[in-house]
Amino acid sequence: MGLLTTVTFLPLIGAIIILFIPKEKVAVIRGSAIFTTFATFVVSLFLYAGFDPSLVGDGVPVMQFTERYEWIATFNVFYAMGIDGLSLPIIILTTLICFLASIYSVSIKERVKEFFFWYLLLEVGMVGVFCATDLFLFYLFWELTLVPMYFLIGVWGGPRKEYAAIKFFLFTLVGSVFMLLAIIAVYFAPNSGTFDMLKLMEINSSWSRNFQIVAFIGFYLGLSVKIPAFPFHTWLPLAHVEAPTPVSVILASVLLKMGCYGLLRICYSILPAGFEWFLPYFIIIAFINIVYGALCAMAQTDMKKMIAYSSINHMGYCLLGMAAVSSTGFNGAVLQMINHGIITGALFLLVGVLYDRAHTRDISAFGGLGAKVPVYAALMVLTCFASLGLPGLAGFVSEFMCFLGAFPVWKMWTILSVAGILITAAFFLRMIQKVFLGPLNEKWADLPDINTRELLAIGPLAVLTVLFGVWPKLILDITNPTVTALAEMHSTIFKYLH
Amino acid sequence: MLEHAYLIPIIPFVTSLVILLGGKEGKDSKMPYLGIAAMGWCFLQSSVLFFRALSGRMPLEAGKEFFLHQRFPWLEWGENLRINVGVLVDGPAVTLLFVVTLVSLLVQIYSLGYMHDDKRKKRYYAYLSFFTASMLGLVIASSIFILFACWELVGVSSYLLIGFWFEKPGPAYASKKAFITTKLADCGFYVGLLILFCYAGTFDLVSLKSYIAQGLLPVEVAKAVGIGFLIGAIGKSAQIPLFIWLPDAMEGPTPVSALIHAATMVVAGIYLVARTYFIFTAAPTTMGAVAWVGLFTAFFAATMAITAYDIKKVLAYSTVSQLGYMMLGLGVYGYTAALFHLTTHAFFKALLFLGAGSVIHAVHTNDMREMGGLYKRMPTTAATVGIATLTIAGLPLLSGWWSKEAILHDVYAVSPGMWVVAVFTAGLTAFYMSRMYVLTFLGAPRNEEKHSHAHESPLTMKIPLWTLAVLSLFAGGILHYNGLFEHLVHFKLPEGSHGSHHAPAYLLPGAAIFVFAVGVGLAYKLYSGSLETAQQLRGKLSIAAETLEQRYYFDDFFLGLVKLSDKLATACYWIDSRIIDAIFIDGWALVLRALAAVNDFIDSFIVDGAVDGVGTITQDAGWGLRKLVRGQVQEYLLYVSLAVAVFATFMLSR
């Protein structure tokens, strides 16, 4: 059994084991779940150790750790897996976030067994999406994330959890339907008859532009819901607010990345002419995501909702980088995915810490907490500054590279998007001022500081925020060869841009 | 020493981490001594570099204009793109290293006394070290990108230190205001960086300089980059119209104001323009912009200082005004003069702030109307601040005189009209500075109670005062002697850029001495006795005074902008939740309703008459649909998707 299969299905084994543990033994269930996610994370590090970033060819990406077994012979469906410099960092991010969020999930007190069952199942789907190199398999994993997420929000969520869950479910499902159609269309396209993504990347030059555009739209509708790209983003704030903290973390850190990943892996790689056709609209969507997302965040009074909208803003930077179709932009986008995962994951955990204690997330309900909970305040301020793009912390470099990549191609939209940086700074600083500065609100005079469990979940993310901010090469050295080759892959189509 | 110049920013950075993470917080913390020791080393190393460079004993690299240039790739991507991190040590950098480490060291010593009873002393020193590290990084960076990174970091240190007493609403608000205002300007800097990299493909100062020297950068591009950088400088160096954050920043501890908001961080904008001077000189339009921004700032800030009664606010306006002078100097090709003024200003302005801190420490108020006659109680403070006041006011042969004269000389050469305004501003400076001094130290005590409690500051505060006083007296003269500073900065004017106006030899110094005498005399006459004459005058000119006190309403303008953007944000959120979200819920439901109606129609009018079995099935489906319509809105989504799916499959298979 290959390493990728192990990483993907290890959580499933954990989930099955949990099924056999009596539901009263809460501690055992939690322990096995945390152990499973930890083991998965460790195995994913083996991928990192055995990965050779320099392995790239001309054109189609060179996959490593490949596995390929015939599955449904009639339809030419293969169980095919493989990773390159694009997927590896995201896979490690996924396993890490799942591990840290599972530590935090100890705060879940109800129906613990089911919670962790769905939780682990969700991890299977997420890791699988990033490993699959067969469209059929990809779609299967993609849909596999849907049901656990639905239950995780719908059962363990906040007051409007059912509404949020069904909204999330239907939004994604509708998108998925279009994606499925597009997958089928690609299968029936000339010279095709395969679901093999790598093969499809080669043969697409024989497809007509119009076909590519139609298929692109199908994929884009499915993927853009997940990113989420304007105007398909309205499920996100609600789902984030209602979801329990660990689920919010996974939603923001990993699930959103599935959309961006798919855009690069499928929309751009398999349907370049469709992508090219869409670019002028794409850059506008990126701009809207950035500025409009930031403005919506500024209007919020609920901390969680504010961060949810800031996610829309940050994913806008990813879109901006992708719209560049250059090594700089793509690298920036991938780096931004990772950094956003780390930073926003930490932000949601931190908001969860406060909510667990105060049972409110209203920004104006606090005041002066900085003197009362210094460690918590320090972590929160650090993460907020990372999110608003302070140099030396993770977010800055990736943001900058996205802008740097996009500027030569889309000068006006890029300059306009810079406003997003200012607005982001404004709402984060306002939040810090209202929550931590000023005289202490006596209502919170007994607020305890962050505890060990919470620190265990958040601390590593804070460390990574600084580490990747000071030394982004750690990620860039993995992604760069793949991503540079990716940007060159369809240079004949995109050369007019540069 | 030279080849390890990178240590100068790294040592305080590590120190700040050690102070922050190690040891116990409290007023008995020993950590401040660690900070001082580390800064002592940095000062030592910097002064060795400075004096060796000054005396010509440190050779320039062969055929180059710098002493040392080290770099290594920090980020590499694409085929051959990279961002380097490294150090570039040249004349201006060495000067700034010396100034920054010196003032930082003195301020840290001074703070031992000033922050003696503060319960978060450890954190204070960690922040100070962190600030100094970032500032030194900014000074020494070999790449504009790293300079920008440090630029943001000094901004964040400034944010943390202005808001150091964050329990009070004033500092909490002021820190945010400072950060956002400078961030607004940084957007300009950011765009400048994007444009620059897009065309030149590098951020390295040395490579950029030769790139531009070869004429490879189109003038239009240089202009755009220059304007972008200038906007950044306007924010950081508190030029008009973005100076609004600096007076508020006085909410921070006074030693912090001396270090960050007088001597070092606020000159970062000036330094940026100087560091990228080759871009500005490549596009003469931007030089004009620099000069005008500087002139306006120098003049208007000086007028605002006239009516302020808060001692720190007077100094803040004065800083803004002096920064304006430096900007003006840069704009008229007075590169050397501007950097010279930057250096001397750092000494006397830091001294003024530390002196003001000493006063505030003694009388526990910022309001000069509560002071008066303090020279008896605090002789050291009164003497040293007196020296600084005379220096900034422009008493001939003191430090400030030399540097200001150098700038005025360059201004006259380019435009005698600008020179008139600049000289008039010098007179205003003499007036408001003397006013501050007279109100604080001379005359009779206006608040007996506060006066009787006032006492001279401890030794830790006196040492920095005297050190800076000596520098304020002599540094200018020494650096001016034999063109020492000119030689150090090593600036060659671009061809044909120097102005053509030559003043008669007596005019420039004569005018300067005249406005100095008038300014000082007027201030003494108005303020040495009771304040009644001044109050009457204010009553007669109430509209003008009101305008000045409201800072020409710049704050209101920007607060209006903030309100506007808040409204915009609310509007966006309203659109998001009421319209866009509604489209995907109600809108799709409407479509479904229409579909169901069509289905209903087919159901009752066509299918009913058809074959029984089929009819029944469809009828059932129709009933089902009608039920759906009355059901939950979200379920319509599912239905629509299926319908579209069928439609799309049909389209695709054609």
Which consecutive residue ranges of chain B, at least 5 long each, have pLDDT under 50? 627-631
- Taking pLDDT < 50 over at least 5 consecutive residues as the criterion, the unreliable ranges of chain A are none
The helix content of chain A is: over 70%
**Envelope shape of chain B:** globular
Main sheet: strands, sense, barrel of chain A? 2 strands, antiparallel
Mean pLDDT of chain B: 87
Multimerization status: heterodimer
What is the helix tally of chain B? 27
Q: What percentage of amino acids of chain B are in beta strands?
A: under 5%
Q: Widest sheet of chain B: strand order?
A: 1-2
Number of strands of chain A: 2
The chain pair forming the largest interface, with residue counts per chain, is: A-B, 67 and 62 residues
Order of helices and strands of chain A: HHEEHHHHHHHHHHHHHHHHHHHH
Name the structural class of chain A.
mainly alpha
Helical content band of chain B: over 70%
Percentage of residues in DSSP E strands of chain A: under 5%
